[in-house]
């Protein structure tokens, strides 16, 4: 990774976030440099949905070139359910599958609109990717795979349910 231009950071460290934002801005300002590849979900899920994007990728400006990626599980499933399978079982499944087939769609470039904030821009890009891949849009992030649901999120969903009833 040291031979290429990776930007590594610790998400929980506020100083790292600011440094990454600065490095990305500098990178996109230099037209001689190649585009940056970012996975704004921060994690992978089961190929049926697109989770909340981290807004940092959409705060720095520049043009976003969205790419929709969807695995075809007919020959082998690339998704790792870490709560169900160990890493060794997953590796064995992937290495012994007949093929890992992936559909990739390169979508038209997108730019943040003047009245749009980073969250709305991220949601607009996410919706385009989900529509192309035939996936649903989820309003939460991948942290729910590994952490308990925040009480505030539960309360918000309960309020929405009460309004329906």
TrEMBL record:
<comment type="pathway">
    <text>Glycerolipid metabolism; triacylglycerol biosynthesis.</text>
</comment>
<dbReference type="GO" id="GO:0019432">
    <property type="term" value="P:triglyceride biosynthetic process"/>
</dbReference>
<keyword id="KW-0808">Transferase</keyword>
<feature type="domain" description="Phospholipid/glycerol acyltransferase">
    <location>
        <begin position="1"/>
        <end position="70"/>
    </location>
</feature>
<dbReference type="InterPro" id="IPR045252">
    <property type="entry name" value="LPCAT1-like"/>
</dbReference>
<keyword id="KW-0012">Acyltransferase</keyword>
<dbReference type="InterPro" id="IPR002123">
    <property type="entry name" value="Plipid/glycerol_acylTrfase"/>
</dbReference>
<keyword id="KW-0256">Endoplasmic reticulum</keyword>
<keyword id="KW-0594">Phospholipid biosynthesis</keyword>
<keyword id="KW-1208">Phospholipid metabolism</keyword>
<dbReference type="Pfam" id="PF01553">
    <property type="entry name" value="Acyltransferase"/>
</dbReference>
<keyword id="KW-0443">Lipid metabolism</keyword>
<keyword id="KW-0444">Lipid biosynthesis</keyword>
<dbReference type="GO" id="GO:0008654">
    <property type="term" value="P:phospholipid biosynthetic process"/>
</dbReference>
<dbReference type="GO" id="GO:0004366">
    <property type="term" value="F:glycerol-3-phosphate O-acyltransferase activity"/>
</dbReference>
<keyword id="KW-0812">Transmembrane</keyword>
<protein>
    <submittedName>
        <fullName>GPAT3 acyltransferase</fullName>
    </submittedName>
</protein>
<comment type="pathway">
    <text>Phospholipid metabolism; CDP-diacylglycerol biosynthesis; CDP-diacylglycerol from sn-glycerol 3-phosphate: step 1/3.</text>
</comment>
<keyword id="KW-0472">Membrane</keyword>
<keyword id="KW-1133">Transmembrane helix</keyword>
<dbReference type="GO" id="GO:0005789">
    <property type="term" value="C:endoplasmic reticulum membrane"/>
</dbReference>
<comment type="similarity">
    <text>Belongs to the 1-acyl-sn-glycerol-3-phosphate acyltransferase family.</text>
</comment>
């Amino acid at each position: 990774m040291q031979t290429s231009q990776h930007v590594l950071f610790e998400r929980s460290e506020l100083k790292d976030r600011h440094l990454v934002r600065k490095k990305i801005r500098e990178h996109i300002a230099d037209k001689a440099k190649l585009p940056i590849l970012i996975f704004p979900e921060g994690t992978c899920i089961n190929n049926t949905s697109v989770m909340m994007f981290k807004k940092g990728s959409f705060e720095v400006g520049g043009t976003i070139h969205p790419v929709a990626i969807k695995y075809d599980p007919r020959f082998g499933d690339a998704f790792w359910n870490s709560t169900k399978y160990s890493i060794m079982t997953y590796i064995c499944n992937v290495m012994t599958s007949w093929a890992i087939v992936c559909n990739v769609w390169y979508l038209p470039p997108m730019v943040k609109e003047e009245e749009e904030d980073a969250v709305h821009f991220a949601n607009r890009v996410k919706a385009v990717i989900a529509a192309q891949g035939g996936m649903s849009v989820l309003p939460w992030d991948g942290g729910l795979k590994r952490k308990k649901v925040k009480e505030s999120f539960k309360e918000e969903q309960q309020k929405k349910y009460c309004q329906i009833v």
